[in-house]
Design goal:
By secondary structure, the protein is mainly β. It folds into four domains: about 170 residues, Sandwich (Immunoglobulin-like), CATH 2.60.40; about 90 residues, Immunoglobulin-like; about 80 residues, Immunoglobulin-like (Sandwich), CATH 2.60.40; about 110 residues, Sandwich (Immunoglobulin-like), CATH 2.60.40. It is built from two helices and 32 strands. A five-stranded antiparallel sheet has the order 2-6-5-8-9, with no helix packed on it. Strands 19, 20, 21, 23 and 24 form a five-stranded antiparallel sheet that branches. The termini are far apart. It is a single-pass type I membrane protein. This is Interleukin 17 receptor E like. Keywords: Cell membrane, Membrane, Signal. One of its GO terms (cellular component) is plasma membrane.
């Protein structure tokens, strides 16, 4: 077995990009060669047409076509890729040499060379096996190539073909050896007080400037205004400081060398910083639309909910569930009550935001009390609105049968209803509901206890129930 045979690996096996002695990469040879003492020389010549082979010529005179990748390195991190092609030839006096060709499928670039055997006068070479090697076909990252090995002269049906995929930058050896693979390594430091991110780059190409930017990763990584800079070649600190507005889970740092088609590296270190996502809520008082726009793509389920008084639970409002990743969430005709909130549920947790809890949004309320011999029910609202009041008898924990109903009650202040005191009972509930909006929640008063000796207005005890009361007609 020759030296060429010993270093050959099959194209289907892992690539033979291994350091040589003293850490150097193996350099491709500049000529074709054959083992076992056979003299050969290569020429850039190839034939298009084949001839019929003689009957005495075995169809297996060509064997073991193998392809691998080798590198030639001018200096550290500046290497080029070449095909290393090996094949075995069973010598015959009718074969004068072999032709090796490489065709790149993406560019249709064809490269060919020939290796010719010298005549040996001392003895016949017939039946002797030799290994032919050629490794001067330059290729590029990720190319798909077709390699052929033919006889000279070109005998029909006596040839070998093989496809080969050149490795790309995902290969660990190439990632540190080919200039277009070198993206640099990014490190960062956040200054929350100044709202800046200082980015440091290392292991980048020293002979080029280096671009750095902050971006929001959605379908693509979108620019953030003003968050771009260039680290000049020769900058000893190799760092730059960029401003940011908010730390978001899709906020990324991107860097690349300043040459055409440079490969980029991206660092997205804030994936767990979701707390700011849920603050991007807006309300349009003209159209009465409550909306939330995701600043970053995130799988989330959104509900409108009503914040309970006695606990921090937020009860979902029926028919308000929306699931999204990228799209805006909108609700039309929403009750602008301080207790109406938005609940966000994602894989990492659940959050509640109440956009109407500020002073400029005034809520409404239902109060029950006793005045003389009557049960007094009052609705207070500073905004123009319409309400319904339902008095019902709770026969089961979640079932309440209507006893008396008041509808289409308009108010922009205070409205009072008087009903018979006989309705004061532990099973009686009073529910007030805003009817001029699509999304609201009933105010509920149950367990009403009224003393017959009470002569002045006294509000009844309010009770909150996590269950939505079901009415029976």
């Amino acid at each position: 077995m020759t030296a060429a045979q010993r270093t050959t690996r099959d194209a289907d096996q892992p690539i033979p990009l291994q350091p040589g002695k003293n850490g150097r990469r193996k350099r491709p040879r500049r000529r074709g060669n054959a083992g076992n003492g056979v003299h050969c020389k290569s020429k850039e010549k190839f034939a298009f047409f084949c001839r019929d082979p003689p009957n005495s010529l075995l169809p297996t005179v060509l064997e073991n076509l193998k392809i691998s990748t080798v590198m030639k390195c001018k200096k550290k991190n500046h290497c080029s890729l070449y095909l290393n092609i090996n094949g075995t030839v069973l010598l015959d006096e009718k074969i004068h040499g072999v032709e090796i060709c490489s065709l790149t499928s993406s560019t249709q670039h064809n490269q060919c060379t020939s290796v010719r055997f010298s005549k040996i006068k001392s003895k016949k070479p017939d039946g002797k096996k030799v290994t032919v090697q050629f490794n001067c076909f330059e290729v590029s990252l990720g190319q798909h190539v077709f390699v052929s090995l033919r006889t000279i002269p070109y005998f029909c049906d006596i040839e070998l073909y093989k496809e080969y995929q050149v490795e790309d930058c995902h290969n660990s050896v190439l990632a540190n050896s080919i200039p277009s693979c070198l993206t640099g390594e990014l490190d960062y430091m956040v200054n929350e007080e100044k709202k800046t991110i200082t980015v440091h780059v290392s292991n980048n190409l020293e002979e080029y400037d280096y671009n750095v930017r902050l971006c929001l990763k959605q379908y693509t990584c979108q620019d953030i205004g003003g968050a771009y800079g260039k680290i000049k070649m020769g900058n000893s600190s190799k760092s730059i400081t960029l401003p940011y507005s908010e730390i978001l889970p899709c906020l990324c740092i991107e860097g690349w060398s300043a040459f055409t088609d440079s490969r980029r590296t991206r660092l997205c270190p804030f994936k767990n910083e979701t707390r700011k996502l849920w603050d991007n809520i807006a309300y349009n008082p003209m159209s009465q639309v409550l909306s939330w726009q995701p600043s970053c793509p995130v799988p989330v389920t959104v509900n409108l909910c009503w914040l309970e008084s006695r606990s921090d639970d937020c009860v979902n409002i029926p028919k308000s569930l929306i699931t999204t990743v990228y799209d805006q969430v909108s609700y039309r005709h929403v009750d602008t009550h301080p207790k109406l909130c938005m609940k966000f549920s994602a894989a990492s947790g659940s959050w509640v935001r109440c956009p109407f809890s500020h002073e400029e949004f005034q809520g409404w309320d239902v109060i029950a009390g006793v005045e003389d011999e009557l049960l007094e029910i009052s609705i207070t609202s500073r905004a123009e609105a319409k309400f319904s009041v339902i008095i019902c008898n709770r026969t089961k924990p979640a079932v309440c049968e209507p006893v008396q109903t008041f509808t289409n009650l308009g108010t922009a202040g205070n409205i009072t209803l008087h009903v018979t005191r006989d309705l004061c009972s532990a099973n009686i509930c009073i529910l007030g509901l805003r009817t001029d909006v699509t999304f609201s929640f009933p105010a509920q008063i149950c367990n009403i206890s009224c003393s017959k000796y009470l002569r002045h207005r006294s509000p009844c005890r309010k009770c909150s129930s996590p269950a939505i009361v079901i009415f029976r007609a």
